[in-house]
Model the fold of this input.
Amino acid sequence: MAPSAITPTEEYKFTHEDYKSIEPALGRLDNHGVLLGKQLKGEALKSRVEAVDPDTCDVGDEDAFFVADLGEVYRQHLRWKKNLGRVKPHYAVKCNPDPQVLRLLSELGLGFDCASKNEIETVLKMGVDPSRVIYAQPCKTKGYLRYATNAGVKQMTFDNADELYKTKQIAPDAELYLRILTDDSASLCRLSQKFGASMDTTGELLELAKKLELNVVGVAFHVGSGASDPKAFIKAVQDARFVFDQAAALGFNMHTLDVGGGFTGDKTFEPMAAVLSASLDEYFPPHVRIIGEPGRYFVSTAFTLACHVIARRTVADATLGTTSYMLYMNDGVYGNFSSIIFDHQHPVPRVLKNGNDILYDARRSGYDTPSMVEYSIWGPTCDGIDVISSSCTFPEILDVNDWLYFEDMGAYTKCSATRFNGFTDNHDVVYVCSEPGASALLGL
Done:
């Protein structure tokens, strides 16, 4: 049964009994579940590509496709609860609005960080209570703001005076979070150049909100997408405490701190979480509700992308006596590899199918040192910037109709794909699930 809605003022509690209930699963985070997920992904990839005969298949059958392990999303949730039990996650829908991911996170009781009318509508249509949605867009379209208000979404952010006047006109009963400026210089994607009130303006904004009789209930910040410096959280939490005290002096009853996103799912998460947790405990008493807006943390590693080699060019260097190849795939930077440009990612190509051989997760002996062949890998459009890898090597001689795969493709990929040059932005997702808990929640 789906968890009940959580009101905006309710603390996200994680007790010792909660921990005991998930401890067996936590023990599998780095072994059984991960290994099973790898196996299930491999079987799904193999089944799909072996079913495609490029000489007879229908148009689109050989298109790039994803395999997603929902069990990985579930494991990331358990990992979050273990390390950031005080922080209630509100998934950043923009990162990957995959319907099954949204379903699972909804069943797990998460809230949702939405930035547009479409994102709000998507989660509300799933039956999510409006109290679990934060309209985390400091500069909102008036029509979108009216929609959100009429739909019952009250939590929203602001960082400037004009937004307060807009809110007074359209959403006077909103529960507002003042988004403050942070140091995001160590993040992959900086946001401070666009959003966040500087600390020398927060007092004026709170005074204006008081004059307009608006309800400011909390502070929000964001240390940047893909943050790498834990110290950024310390300064942001300290600044948030200062604004809380400013608001209290003006008579506001602040009850929520939104620590934003920036969390990655790699090995930096635990030390980052430890620093954030310590700062929260130092500056904010237990009655203050803490929420966050993770995106890539939940989905990055869950999705693997498979691409078809549609063309090959041989590059012979007579002077050096070498032969390399240019491979052209049916997906590129205008499609699911948009993360290369927009998200500063570096997808790693691996061989999935070479001739009749399936090579997913192939392990070679340490004594096996075959000569390597150099490749560059390109997307399908007519644009010269459509390059996936300028140089990589494989022991295999790859050709047209072979397949490559790319892991960790769940964040800022499919959501920002375009139809440039007439290529599709609609790619299938094959779902597997390596965790029984996730399967039970989704009825799989």
Notes: The domain at 300-432 is CATH 2.40.37.10 (Lyase, Ornithine Decarboxylase; Chain A, domain 1). The chain has a mean pLDDT of 88.
